[in-house]
Amino acid sequence: MVKILWVDDEIELLKPHVLFLQGKGYEVDTCNNGYDAIDMVGEGSYDLVILDEMMPGMTGLETLPKIKEARPNTPVIMVTKSEEENIMDKAVGSKIADYLIKPVNPNQVLLSIKKNVHSRQLVTEQTTADYRAEFGRISASLQSASTFADWCGIYRRLTGWEIELAESNDPSVGEVLVYQKNEANREFCKFVRRNYFNWINRRDDDTPVMSHTLMRSRIFPVADSHAKTTLLLIDNFRYDQWRSIAPLLRGYYDVEVDDFYCAILPTATQYARNAIFAGLMPLAIDKLMPQKWLNDNEEGGKNMYEEEFLRRQTAQNGRSYKMTFDKLVRPEAGRKLIENIQRIYEADFSVIVYNFLDILSHARTETEIIRELTEDEASFRSLTRSWFEHSELYTLLKLLSERGHTVIVTSDHGTIRVDNPVRVTGDRATSANLRYKTGRNLAYNSREVYEITRPEDVQLPSGNLTSSYIFAYNSDFLVYNNDANRFIRYYRNTFQHGGISMEEMIVPYIVLKPKQN
After folding, report:
1. Contact 53, 60 (CB under 8 A)
2. Which of 16, 28, 177, 476 is the most buried (most CB within 10 A)?
3. DSSP code of 458?
4. What does DSSP assign to residue 100?
C-alpha cells in the first residue's frame, strides 16, 4: 500500500480530501506543522509527502530541505495559496515533484500522486497495451515487406518496442516480443536469400546502399556540403545501442538523418569495413591489391590498410579533402586523440574508427563478470550507455559540437546474441567464425544455412579453387562436430557477427548537426 504524509496547518479542514484518498486505497498520515513532519519522515517510510507552503513557525520551504535531507528520493508535492513566481522558483529549485495552488480538489491531488508514485507502472501498463494492439500490424507487415527499406521500418519498430517494454512488469508480453522478433528475423533471412545476388550484381532502385557504396552514396555528399565533417565508425554498433546513447547527445546535436544501410556478407570486420573504406567488394580488393588482402586462413592482420583504401577512394571520386584518419583500440588512444584534437579541428574530413564495442562483445564471451552484467539485451544496452557516458568518445563528441563539426555515426556491421547451434564439418583450413564459414570440403545441412558455392557470384574471394561460404541465419551459430558440446556451452548466449540477421545487416546511419551556441 502507498503511504502518504500530508502536512498542513489547516489539516482538519482537509479531512474530506484525506478520506477520499483513503477510499482510493492510500494510507494517509497527517500533521499540522513542519517540526512534526520532519520527525515523522525520519521515523517512517513514506512514498510521498504533500507539504503546505504557508505554515506558521516553520514554512513549507524551510521544511522541504530537511525532508530531502532525511529522504532524498521521496517525492514532495508543494501546496500553497501563493502564485508568486519567486516562491515557485524556490520550490522548483528545491527539487519538488509537483506544485499545486489552493484551493485544491481531491482529483487534482490524486492525479499528482499517480504521476509521481505510479507513473512507471502506468507507463508500462499503457506501453504493454499499445504493443499488444501493434502486434497484429507488425505481423502483417512481415508478410508484405518487399524492399530493404520496408525491413528497416520493421526493425526500427521492433527495436522501439524492445526498448519501451524493457521495464514492463508483464513477462508474457516480453516473450511475445521475442517470438515476434525471431519471426521477423526468419522472414528477413528469406528476404536476403532471395535478393542478395541481385543486390551485389544488379544495381537498381530496390538495391540498398551497401558497405562498398556507403562512402560515395552517403558520406562524401555530407562531407561536400559541410565545412567540417567527422565520420565516427563504431565497430559492432547496433541501432538499439544508438537509441541508448542518443539522449546523452541531445544537448549538443540535432539528429539530421536517422537511417540505415545494408552491411555486406560476411558481416565481419575483415570484409565489411574493408569494403566501406575501399569502396569495393572484397573480390575486387583482392584482384586490384592482392598484397593488401588476406583470406581467413592466412596469417596476419586483416584490416591493416583501411586508411590507404580510403585515401585511394577519395582520390578516385574526385575529392581532395584535408583528411585525418584515426583507429582507436585502447582507452589511452582516445585520451591521446583528445590531447591532439587540433589536427581534427583543422581537417575538412576526419575519420575515427572506434573498436570498443567489439572488445566489449568479446569480453562478454570470455569474461564471466561481463557475461553476468549483460545477461540480456536490455542490460547490454545499459552497459553500452554507461561505457559511452564515461568514455573519451563522449568527450570528443562534445568538443566537436563546440567547434561546429557535423558528425556521421555508423558501423561496419552489427551483432546478434546466438542461442541455436548448427553443426558443420570442415578441414583445418576452415575459418573459425561462428556466424560464417569459408573453406574446402564443408559438410552441412543446406536447409540450415545460406550457401555460396561459387564465391565470385557475390564478389567474395576464394582461398582456393574449391572454397565455398556458408552463413548462419537468425540466432544460429556454427559448431564443428568435434567437441561440439563444449563449444555450445561456451558460446551459447554470446554476441557474434558474420551471418544474416536484422541486427547484423541493418546498420544505423546517423547524421548529427551541432547545435548553435
Report:
1. yes
2. 476
3. G
4. E
